[in-house]
Write a structure and sequence with these properties.
Layout lengths: L1 E9 L2 H31 L7 H6 L1 H7 L9 H23 L17 E4 L6 E4 L7 E5 L3 E6 L7 E10 L2 E9 L12 E6 L3 E5 L4 E3 L3 H4 L1 H13 L3 E2 L2 E2 L1 H35 L2 E5 L3 H4 L6 E2 L7 E2 L3 H14 L1 H15 L2 E5 L24 E3 L6 E3 H19 L3
Parallel strand pairs: 8-13, 13-16
Antiparallel strand pairs: 1-5, 1-7, 2-6, 3-4, 4-5, 6-7, 8-9, 9-10, 11-12, 14-15, 17-18
């Protein structure tokens, strides 16, 4: 089992400068490799450049520029080139699938925030000794950086990454460990229905309220973004100090909302995993759910369009993104795997329109967002609870149908 750990680093002033230079030099390497691929395709008879060809040039690049490229880990630079190669692979895969992806773009210094080290001990070393109260991680060209290790790392550390978030630096570890001991059986099963009014409803009639972190911070974010728009971005070729402070303010507010959303998702998923042996949820296609509606051309007025509900759909999309269903489901599956629990995704069609008492399916069974009233047998309940019950039943049927 592979598990990731994220710890806050506390570099000195010189180490902070060295880490920033590392990101800038890796960003320059990434952009240079991208430019080479673009030039080869456009000017050399549509020739494609692969990762192996660019990786073979690293030795000459490091010898030509020892002060910038030669001071960093060779393996981390290879990881940066692999990152570009993966971006092109994803671009061509989506193009063949009929989608319209964006071509890989050049990265600005502020857009390139991560450097990967594929192997612990090659250009980096995680140093966590039991007798030393201070944990450190060593990076080639930077030195030993103090780490705020708030929990133990179990298993063998495989990869190490540096990540910059605002003015803070983090180290991300992936460790390989044996499967942990599963939690004791509870004999309980549950279905959950994700929503907007309530974050989720379970089949037992319980509800988890939606914290709406993004909406609560909307006024502060709006004020910070308006302040950012008032400051000149560049003066005499340099970013102004006021503009940089405004950028940090906006980024800090976004970072706080993201952390609040993650904290809520972790706590909610942990409660479900501890309480139930099996958890069934809807197999949601969130990317399709938040798509903007297609425009409706007006046949009587060429060049004009009919109302398509884009404003209302935009508000719904904002609420769905604020709820963070995708992050929550990812965390739920990871915690369930560690705890030995079972999570099953079921088809979401008609889960909120099917009567759990008689099985009648009709859109009229749900007259309002919260109320369920079966037109066939008269069964009444909360619509989200009905959906969770139907999700649980579908999950149990799917588990029984799975081969042993």
């Amino acid at each position: 089992m592979i598990r990731a750990y994220k710890f806050l680093m506390r570099p000195t002033v010189r180490q902070d400068q060295a880490l920033s230079e590392m990101l800038a030099d890796h960003c320059s390497l990434y952009n240079g490799a991208l430019q080479e691929r673009r030039d080869a395709y456009r000017h050399v008879s549509k020739t494609s450049v692969a990762y192996g060809m660019q990786s073979a040039q690293l030795k000459d690049i490091r010898a030509f520029d020892p002060e910038r490229q030669g001071r960093w880990s060779f393996s981390s630079q290879q990881a940066t080139l692999r990152r570009l190669d993966k971006a092109f692979a994803a671009f061509f895969r989506r193009t063949k699938a009929g989608e319209t992806p964006g071509y890989p773009r050049f990265r600005g210094v502020n857009w390139f925030d991560t450097v990967d080290f594929p192997k612990n001990g090659d250009g980096c070393r995680w140093d966590s000794t039991p007798h030393d109260p201070v944990t450190r991680v060593r990076f080639q060209g930077v030195g030993h950086v103090k780490v705020n290790q708030h929990r133990p790392v179990t298993g063998k550390v495989k990869t190490v990454s540096i990540k910059r978030e605002g003015r803070h630096w983090y180290v991300i570890l992936t460790g390989e460990q044996t499967a942990p001991e599963p939690l004791p059986k509870t004999g309980s099963v549950a279905g959950i229905d994700l929503g907007i009014a309530n974050f989720l409803a379970d089949s037992g009639g319980g509800f988890v309220p939606n914290p709406r972190h993004g909406r609560k911070a909307a006024a502060k974010l709006e004020a910070a973004q308006q302040a950012l728009a008032r400051f000149p971005r560049v003066r005499r070729g340099k970013r102004t100090a006021n503009h940089q402070r405004a950028v940090n303010k906006v980024a800090g507010l976004h970072r706080k909302v993201r952390r609040q959303r993650l904290d809520h998702a972790h706590k909610t998923a942990l409660g479900l995993v501890r309480a139930h042996d099996l958890i069934a949820h809807e197999d949601l296609r969130i990317r399709n759910m938040v798509k903007a509606p297609a425009p409706k051309p007006d046949p009587d007025k060429p060049g004009s369009f009919l109302p398509n509900g884009a404003a209302a759909k935009a508000g719904l999309n904002h609420s769905i993104n604020d709820a963070g269903w995708g992050v929550f489901l990812t965390i739920l599956h990871a915690k369930a795997e560690s705890a030995g629990r079972e999570v099953i995704a079921v088809d979401p069609r008609n889960t909120s329109r099917t009567c759990p008492a008689c099985g009648h399916v009709s859109a009229e069974n749900r007259p309002t967002q919260e109320r369920f009233h079966c037109v066939s047998c008269g069964h009444r309940a909360h619509a989200d609870t009905v959906g969770a019950l139907n999700v649980l039943r579908a999950g149990l049927v799917r588990r029984e149908a799975q081969p042993a």
